[in-house]
Amino acid sequence: MDWNSHPVLVTGADGFIGSHLVDALLDRGALVTAVVRRTSRAQVTARFRNLSQRTVSALHALLHLDLAGPDATPVLASSGALTWFHLAADAYVPASLSQPSTVVQTNITSTLHVLEAARAAGPRHLLVTSSSEVYGSHPGPIAEGDPLEPATPYAASKVACDRLARSYHDAFGLPLTIVRPFNCYGPRHVYDVVPLYLARALGGLPLVVNGDGTQTRDLTYVSDTVDAFLRLAELPPEGKPYNIGTGVDHGIADLARQVLAVTGCSVPVRPGPARPGEVRKLQADATALREATGWEPRHSLAEGLRLNLEWIRDEPGWL
């Protein structure tokens, strides 16, 4: 696909994956309309969380918008974009345990408004971001047809968004693809286990392994995840879900050891309490993605951790 001068809309553009996607699209010459939360207006010196001044200057348009608010649908519908990437979400799982109503309402209402805007505007392709959390725990690699068994309010909200998107394809013919990324890590990520462990190791603090440490995650480096998004955008928009994941899962205790190895730090690894609703095993079966697009992850976990560490050391204000 030739992205040069192609009009694109990205919600959650100042988030972790969204900001990397925006950079990749700009590098390919796309005309990017970036949608960021209204609260981003208060960020310091022209940084919108993860968007640099250089990136902001290169955008076709920057929209400060509450996607759950009443203005979202008409504003999005008037963007003129032909390809839409919907990544905006309240994605911090622990927040859904302390504030379930807020997380559930935000995620579902925002996605509904994006779908309604797309129905009005008629883009060629809408990619709706779901989550691997929709699956819950499964004993082996998880394929798209496996049962959805959410274990937290966040996961349940993403199931609702996932199924809502499919219903808009079936009921209204909306041209869309559902994207289910497994755990993603890399530069600019500031929560979840990988950045937490890197920060604590470099800060001389112990790494806390919640539960027994045998719970596993399929960890994909962010540039590989973005590559998958771009490849999926080239497929016919048939309402199908696609997993993004390496197919290799890593135990959390083993991840702690790998973080210590890559940082060269000697801090203790300590047990912590098990987390409510924690998924025991997440391992992607990304056969559908590979067969449809030829995608393959380019980074091993060791290489990704090294690159993540280099970025942290180049960004002294991050810790």
From TrEMBL:
Which SUPFAM superfamilies would you find in this protein's record? NAD(P)-binding Rossmann-fold domains (SSF51735)
Reading the lineage from the top rank, the first entry is Bacteria
Q: Where is the NAD-dependent epimerase/dehydratase domain?
A: 8-245
Family stated for the protein in its record: Belongs to the NAD(P)-dependent epimerase/dehydratase family.
Which PANTHER family does its entry note? DTDP-D-GLUCOSE 4,6-DEHYDRATASE-RELATED
The name this protein carries in UniProt is GDP-mannose 4,6-dehydratase
Q: Which organism is it from?
A: Streptomyces buecherae
